[in-house]
Specification:
By secondary structure, the chain is of the alpha+beta class. The chain folds into two domains: 4-147, Chitinase A, domain 3; 152-218, Orthogonal Bundle (Recoverin, domain 1), CATH 1.10.238. The protein contains six helices and ten strands. The protein has helices at residues 4-14, 21-26, 94-100, 155-159, 169-178, 186-192; strands at 30-35, 51-60, 72-75, 83-86, 108-113, 123-125, 128-129, 134-144, 166-167, 200-201. Strands 1, 2, 3, 4, 5 and 8 form a six-stranded antiparallel beta sheet that branches. Strands 6-7 form a two-stranded antiparallel ribbon. Strand 6 and strand 7 (128-129) form a beta hairpin. It is globular, with a radius of gyration of 19 Å. The structure holds 2-acetamido-2-deoxy-beta-D-glucopyranose.
């Protein structure tokens, strides 16, 4: 419904799997720190409730019973910007909450996350089917004082480079090029351009767009 490479991450990170207690007991999460510090002072160590910036590459683990082993389904690296998440309090999948708390800023780790601590029996889309074991190669970039502004995000303003409250084809093309997507995905037009005029207005846009139309005062 929204540009998959940008917004899919929101749905991925916010989705928490139901998982049963019995299944969790059987499932083992592995965390292998392969680079950076493994011990550090408390203020450099991720604690539950911390807001952190994180790089990740998510793929289907080699051991996964479902999905295509090795297939990357999402990555912050292609956007070159880390994502900001609140960790350890149920805002992200359990495998992140449990695997990332205790890691040090600057560390890189491989997390192998069984389905019960990932996206469970439902999965999340065709690349992450139900029952998939996930592999996240992550880097803890920083612990932040508070969630930065862009957690809320205003994707609309980012794309609307001339700030006129409308996204036209050139602005959308430029935006998608900037995130390494060669063409504006058809679904963007199908779902967002409600009246089919090849202009996506602030009112039409369903992604993160702030609380008021940038041109609101003049309308
Ligand atoms: C889209 O908007 C930009 C910025 O205002 C403008 O330069 C460009 O010509 C417009 N493109 C189209 C296809 O209307």
């Amino acid at each position: 419904m929204l540009p998959p490479s940008t917004l899919r991450i929101c749905s991925l990170l916010l989705l928490t799997s139901p998982g049963s207690a019995a299944a969790e007991a059987a499932a083992a999460l592995t965390v292998d720190v392969y680079s950076g510090p493994t011990d550090c002072p408390d203020d450099s160590k991720v604690q539950p409730g911390n807001h952190i910036s994180l790089h990740y590459v998510g793929s289907i683990d080699k051991s996964s019973a479902t999905g295509k082993p090795g297939k990357t389904f999402d990555s912050s690296r292609v956007r070159s910007e880390p994502v900001d998440v609140t960790i350890g309090i149920g805002k992200v999948i359990k495998g992140w909450d449990e695997g990332i708390v205790g890691l040090c800023v600057g560390s890189k780790a491989n997390l192998i996350i069984p389905p019960e601590l990932g996206y469970g029996h439902d999965g999340v889309d065709k690349d992450v089917p139900g029952g998939a074991t996930l592999h996240f190669d992550i880097e803890v970039v920083s612990i932040n004082a508070a969630p930065p502004e862009r957690v809320e995000g205003n994707l609309f303003a980012e794309i609307d480079t001339d700030g006129n409250g409308e996204l036209n084809e050139s602005e959308l093309e430029a935006y998608f090029k900037s995130i390494h997507v060669e063409e504006v995905p058809d679904e963007m037009w199908e779902h967002e351009d409600k009246n089919g005029d090849r202009i996506i207005t602030w009112e039409e846009f369903s992604g993160p767009k702030g609380s008021r139309n940038p041109m609101g005062d003049e309308l």
